[in-house]
Model the fold of this input.
Amino acid sequence: MTIRGPRRRNVGRGGTMGSQEYDFGSIEGKWQKRWEEMGLFAAREDDPRPKCYVLSMYPYPSGVLHMGHVINYTIGDVVVRYKLLRGFKVLSPMGWDSFGLPAENAAIRTGVHPHEFTEGNIARMTQQMRRAGWGYDWSRELATSHPDYYRWTQWFFLRFLEKGLAFKKTAPVNWCPSCQTVLANEQVKDGGCERCGTQVEQRDMDQWFFRMSTYAQRLLDNHARLEGRWPEAVLKLQKEWIGRSEGARVEFRVAETGDPVPIFTTRPDTLWGVTFMSLAPEHPLVEKLVRGTEHEERVMAAVREMRAAGTSEKDLADREKVGVFTGFHVVNPVNGEKVPLWVANFALMTYGTGAVMAVPAHDQRDFEFARKYGIPIKVVIQPEEGSLDPETMTGAYVDPGVMAASGPFDGRRNTEAMPDVISWLEEHGHGRREINYKLRDWLISRQRYWGAPIPVVYCDGCGVVPVPEEDLPVLLPTDVQFREGGGNPLATSESFVHTSCPSCGGPARRETDTMDTFVDSSWYFLRYCDPHNEAAPFGEASLRHWMPVDQYIGGIEHATMHLIYARFFTMVLHDLGLLDFDEPFDRLFCQGMVCKTAYYCPEHKYLKEEEVVDGHREGDIIVDGRCAHCGRPVQSEMTKISKSKFNIVDPDAMMDRFGADTVRLYMLSDAPPDRMQIWSENGINGAWRIINRLWSLALDSLERVAAPGEPVPDDLDVLNREIRRMTHQAIGRVTGAIEGGFQFNTAIARCNELLNALRSGFEKVHPAVLRETLEVILRVLSPIVPHMAEELWERLGHGESVFTAGWPEADPEAAREELVEIPVQVNGKLRSRLHVSPDESREELERLALADERVQKFIAGKEIARVVVVPGRLVNIAVR
RNA sequence: GCCGGAGUGGCGGAAUGGUAGACGCACGGGACUUAAAAUCCCUUGGCCCCAAGGCCGUGAGGGUUCGACUCCCUCCUCCGGCACCA
Done:
């Protein structure tokens, strides 16, 4: 199929309206250069205007801009320019999340050093960003892989280490055998590596952590301050991720040995119904108990099997629950009952204590396990009506009820007795109230080269020794080998590994782990405030000046990783006395995914458009197409653009064809930006038309537009009064649309209306009204289509940038309606319309409505029960 | 399973409890053109009707109200997230 609407560079065919095409090629470049020269986006602390820090999430420098970047950075740029027009000095920085796996994988594949690879990509993407017209203060550009940045990442690590917030421990970790590195839980998707998809294994390794779990409650509490400012969904995701649950810690003991077995439960009210206990396969007690006993072989074999499955099982939740009896028992402290101790694959060592009390009567998972292994079931919560029989139960009873067989609590409602049960446990020394969180400590070790080296050395005499601050940065060495499956390349550098102990001067070994790249991104927004500081990560005064980020913009996929890490990091820096705030991002906005139709053949999977044959187009979609390879009918779906689905859109190609302004306008004109964005050929053509309609109307206006400053006369005709009214109403509505949640689509719609009104009455529009309206359109549209707005603003005779012109202010007098249309309803149904002054009295409206000919037809012969009059809005006559 | 969000023309989407469908796309008709593209103008929720006009319509069903896309209850569908968390 042929691509419709190919762009010809064909300007000035002259003649009638609409014939002049917007020549983005020369105009966009001109203004990008001009903004650079005038320092429009250079943020200065000595600038007296109030500050506004607008930040878009920095990208990984993959070398290619994709549509996700385009929507993200376009929104950011619109906010930046809008704030400029509103009189703020805006900090709008950009930088690079430039450490990470792709560069290292490329090094293994092609032999190009990650540094070179990364710098080349940064150069390419910078060009693409400039071309898109996004305004940044490039003097503040940073890259996390540069030593002058990662030296401070290392410096923060040392501060954490001093305070005991960075520590090392052996932990079962997610190991990606392909990447040869450890992954955070967040980086494991469906049991596979987030990056390469390889099945993840569990291994015990010595790893560095940040003590994030102790900040769980604070991360949760501070949500109160973010409510209404962050998307609901992000707060919810974080809440879920932090996973607070209240309950009790209860001390059980092994009957045979007396070993304590503490458990955590959210249902202390069911303690009397415990019929067995489960330990996680990794629980240290398992091996301790069975070693040297008749049970050892059988139990340890089962444990090995359970551990082998690890997290590599595709769907953990659907995995069959299996267990093995240890041969030992535990004593239930509340009633002295002796119940069997099992090892079960559903018990997690990483949550609670790694031991779970089992109440099959009131927990579905325990129920299934008990039925499977013939373990007794004991009912201790009875429903209000009827009584449960363990023999006939088909599932656990988890609803509220009355406690039974529960000693001192018999007959009490379980929901009400809960706090008393906990008090009782405390009084009798059996346990205490406890709160547990799913949020764990942050594993930051990566067995990789392309990251910030963790600045410690290992000395046989002194142990773990931090690198002294003055020796930072610990530079990445260049004498390393990048090999497929070769483990950590950093460990292959002799010059790096062998060093001397900063403490005793003896021979020592450097840590070869590097830090998770999420550490880099946990403070980059701070560095932007003072990017060239060589004495500190940032100057206190600069931070006080710019922070917090007023508006942060990025993808919702960072809700639980980056956004929690960055909040945690900020809190720690606050507690270290480095910051006087503890939440970094005042407002957050998450843009929607960019989607496009993809085609799918049951046999050949996703197809390119040209592989779909015999179909016809309905709008943008090929319908009833067949697979070019096998002839099977092809399905179409609207889905996130991705290479694997052959539905990608190349921003560069789009800007070649339509220019940056058209792409920007299209991204924002169809749907609110937090929703899914549908990319379509027709849609971008529509945006191109809007651009050209405005362009040619403005050019046609130049001949007859009033001189700048020429006042609008008082004695305008109806048409011109109407246009002025629309103009001044539009200012208010556009402002509201932007302030009320970035509803750029409706803001653009208002401008279209104005444009249409000017076009249809063009010959009769007064020159002064023409100028006024055009200038309003240009100013309110300038954040969205900045290049064209600037060009036309200049051609209208302004010497200064439109971005220094200020946001237009609505004149309430001009915006006032002279005549309003008042709907008249009878029993809620529209029957007629009155045309009256907007402040026509209640009585007169009622009189006019009742007298209306069309209304009469519907009320004749009926009893009027009530007449509702809302002055200026409507009349509703209720009849019987 | 649990928790969110959303269901409005052929499509993307507009509507402080007050004229449902702004704006745009697509479709159709017309103008310009030798012709096409581009551009411009008109029409366009469905149904009945020569017309005037009327009836029906915001996932389904109830409720509150003079009046409900909007608020409340029940249900259905779709999307997203979480999912052995004791």
